[in-house]
Amino acid sequence: MTCQGRSEGQWYSWKPCLMSREGKWEGRRNFGGRVCSRGKLYMGRYIVKRVLQFIPVFLGVTLILFLLQNVVPGDPIKLMAGEKRLDPVTEDNLRATYHLIETDADGSIVRDEAGNTIETPLWKRYTLYVTGLFHGDLGVSYQQSGKAVSQILAEKYPYTIRLAAVAIVIEALIGILAGMVSAIRRYSFWDVLVTLSTSILVAMPAFWLGMLLQLFFGIILKDATGEAFYLPISGAGGPHAEFDSGMYYILPAITLASVSTAYTARIMRSQLLEVMNQDYIRTARAKGLSRRATILHHALKNALIPVVTYIGIDFGAMLAGAILTETVFNWPGVGYETYRAITQRDWPIVLGSVTVIVLVVMVINLIVDISYAFLDPRIRYGGPKSQG
Q1: Distances from the Cα of 223 to the Cα of 9, 227, 230, angstroms
Q2: How buried is residue 168: exposed, middle or buried, by Cβ count under 10 Å (0-12/13-18/19+)?
Q3: At how many degrees (to 10) do helices 250-276 and 149-184 cross?
């Protein structure tokens, strides 16, 4: 974190101490211990400000989704019955359970003078939904026998988290390494190979890449080796699965990480090339440092700042559930569950999963923003501007 101190009316930055006008590094003891506490105050204000910004974003997203579910055609109660026709009493009870019609304080159905049920206004249903959210109640599924949405997501999210963790490791390792090789060996065969490979991956749809991997590693390779070696192409394994559970992560993780790895390599290459042309890098080389030491100890850290930022944001997107990848590989994660819920008009699951996704993405973005101060001490949030 960059902290600030004032000496003779002038602000100075320090990492991890403060530089005086004479160019000497002075510790916080010379400034009465107020330096770091002032920086912490600015960071604390920034975090509080960002958390407060979550509230309108959260309410806005949930409101839009709630309104959209009422625009899409299809009666979820009738979809629950399928081809069977519900008797009026059962249908009214279901509508009352899901707050689609008015009920009194005792839970009894309210009817008008003609004996018809009264539809619950949208604003009241949204208020009930948001109130339930603050109590941890995401609603009840239309299609899964009244199962709580929170329970469904609790069962599905571990699969998404594990898949995202494997994919982000692949993205970070291969992307950063490929970008470094491409930048260090500029205009070489390896640079051309990385550039060509990333261009192909960026242009290739993830679902199509997943299908190609399924075709080659699950069918062609199986036939070519006489079933001696091939990879699973569907599901996540289990106690009676044909393969070890870890094998089921290979193809989905590669598919999920493919496009992101290409972008990571491109960002790493461009940033490292830019940093290597800076004056302080040339000064380090002029002082006799080897090219390797200059890159590893001086250039790499600054070049990694936007890369780490992108990887962090991308990890949040992966935790949101990769609908295409999970659908192609029949992966039992939150993305596939959301896709199924959309096709079945199971709006409580759709609303609940998207709500959790929004919260996860906002928290990840906040963590990434806070990490700026630790990766680059020159970055300050809300602190006084340097003068002179």
Answers
A1: 77, 6, 9
A2: buried
A3: 40
H or E element at residue 164:
helix 149-184
CB neighbours of residue 205 within 10 Å: 10
Burial of 384 (C-beta count, 10 Å sphere; 0-12/13-18/19+): exposed
Question: Can you tell me the distance from the alpha carbon of 137 to that of 150, in angstroms, rounded to the nearest whole number?
Answer: 7
Chain centroid to Cα 286, Å, comes to 43
- What's the whole-model pTM score? 0.75
Count the neighbouring beta carbons within 10 Å of the beta carbon of residue 171: 26
Give per-10-residue mean pLDDT for the chain (388 aa): 43 41 41 51 75 84 81 70 71 76 77 78 83 82 81 90 93 94 90 93 89 91 85 81 83 92 94 87 83 82 85 84 86 89 84 85 81 63 46
